[in-house]
Amino acid sequence: MKHIPIIPVPIEEAELALFEERKKIYPRSQKGWFASRRWVMVALTQLLFYGTVWLGWNDRQAVLFDLVARKFYIFGFVFWPQDFIYLAVLLVISALSLFLFTAIAGRLFCGYACPQTVYTEIFLWVESKVEGDRNARIKLDAGPLTAHKFSLKFIKHFIWLMIGLWTGFTFVGYFTPIRQLASEIFSFTLGPWEIFWLLFYGFATYGNAGWLREQVCKYMCPYARFQSAMFDKDTLIVTYDTERGEPRGSRNKKVDFKAKGLGSCVDCGICVQVCPTGIDIRNGLQYECIACGLCIDGCDQVMDKMGYEPGLIRYTTEHALTRKLDQKAMWARVFRLRTLIYSGILALIILATAVSLFNHIPLKVDVIRDRTMPKITEMGAIENVYRLQVMNTQESARRYSVEIIGLPGATILNNPVVEVKSANATAVPIRVRVPANTLQPGSNRIRFEIKDLDAPDVKVIEKAVFLVPR
Q1: Which of 17, 320, 386, 389 has its CA 20 to 30 A from that of 2?
Q2: Which GO terms describe its cellular component (predicted)?
Q3: Bridge-partner residues for 404, per DSSP?
């Protein structure tokens, strides 16, 4: 057997072979239909995030997740830990919505509503305003560190930090009342947890949107990895028409490219320059693609200048491309059995949740029998003691009556009226007496009816056990 010499590889070369060096991406500013819609989504999402926290409702913050008091306020609703089912339903609705949108049109969420995408777009806008367009930024980074370069970098990063810290402040404001939080900041009385989360979320925004950018989408986001499981050949995706575009090549506008054997692609590279993740869509669908559609805008503008038909890069499906389907046939396959099932299940869950919220009773009661042994009076009557936890989820103080139903002769010895403050809970002891020889020895069913004195329709019936000594 011939001996093959082993040549040692330097450690530096081995590292270069294993790890790809990051090349900074300088996305080119782009105008067009998809670019405009992206900025509309940026405006809507940020108006929702930054604005909702300042809305008031009944002398309180409209949306507040008070973890200390274990109460969640969402406009007119007050949710307690017992309402955890609504959080579970919200997560199910979010997951099904993601599956539905992905099955229909790919990574729409990533391209238009994902926080990473939105804040990266905002940070890139700041960078372009401070440092200039794409070519100016490339030239600036390639040049030596001068006073002018340092000042531009300082201004950019300062604005980024302010945006990040304001984002962290707003995030914490959903858990600590925003006006109280602002007052504590200015009076230097901010608590340690508020400080931690404000700085953590602020610097996470700064780091992810300012430094990591597309690296989060490519290496950290799990959605990019399993999205292919939700795609099929009838999913709308950003696609380059290879048959029409190849072979690509530069040419003069007046040249008959078909006579020269060329495709419609002029190989200008605009589609790569505008891409936030730096991919070349002409190489086929890649997991890094966030379906923002900026390459469509860029390519359509070049096609328009050349006098060619637009749509060389477009939103279409694999079946529509390979089978030459028209728009009507394509959309008929987009809304197929799979997406209709997703839509039906999602609509049913949303409808059921809406009905449940509409019929939501603003009163919750827990009944716990005291562990002490039943008391026997001189007349032979039996007494049991219960602890009633009455929760009022309304925005006003309420008075509730407590009655025993389904147990003849049972009486409540102490005050049967419970007063509870707005959005609060009160625990009260209730002594129940049953005449002698009324019940069988052992465990007997008993029911408490708690009713709002000012709104008789608001009532709750809770079961408990009445013990009779043997």
Answers
A1: 17
A2: plasma membrane
A3: 448
Which of 306, 236, 321 lies closest to 268, judged by CA?
Answer: 306
- In terms of Cα–Cα distance, which of 208, 201, 44 is closest to 117? 208
Q: Fill in the amino acid letter for 361.
A: I
Q: pLDDT tens, 201-221?
A: 999 999 999 999 999 988 888
Residue 363 near residue 389 (C-beta atoms within 8 A): no
The DSSP bridge partners found for residue 61 are 56
Peptide bond into 469 cis (omega under 30): no
Domains (range + CATH), the chain? 33-79+114-228 (no CATH), 363-468 (2.60.40.10)
Note whether 217 and 110 are within 8 A (CB).
Answer: yes
DSSP structure class, residue 222:
S
In 3D space, the residue among 297, 313, 301 whose CA is nearest the CA of residue 263 turns out to be 313
Q: How many CB atoms lie within 10 A of CB 112?
A: 23
Q: Work out the number of other CB atoms within 10 angstroms of the CB of residue 60.
A: 14
pLDDT at residue 157 in the model:
98
Smallest CA-to-CA distance from 277 within 136, 107, 132 is with: 107
Rounded Cα distance, 238 and 295, in Å? 9
Contact in structure between 346 and 359 (CB atoms under 8 Å): no
Residue 93 zone, left/alpha/beta (φ > 0; ψ -120 to 50; rest): alpha
Rounded CA Rg of the chain: 33
Rounded distance between C-alpha atoms, residue 120 and residue 212, angstroms: 9
Residue labelled with tokens 């579970």: 88
Tokens representing residue 427 in the block: 């625990």
Q: How many residues belong to the chain? A: 470
What's the pLDDT band for 4 if we cut at 50, 70, 90? low
Q: What separation in angstroms does the CA of 207 have from each of 108, 210, 215, 385?
A: 24, 5, 11, 58
Is 44's pLDDT higher than 90? yes
The answer to whether the beta carbons of residues 282 and 245 sit under 8 Å apart is: yes
Q: Tell me the per-residue pLDDT of 273-300, one tens digit each, with 9 for 90 and over.
A: 999 999 999 999 888 999 999 999 999 9
And the tokens for 4? Answer: 């093959």
Lookup result for tokens 């007496």: 433
Does residue 376 carry a pLDDT above 60? yes
Beta-carbon contacts of residue 267 (< 8 Å; ≥ 6 apart):
248, 249, 250
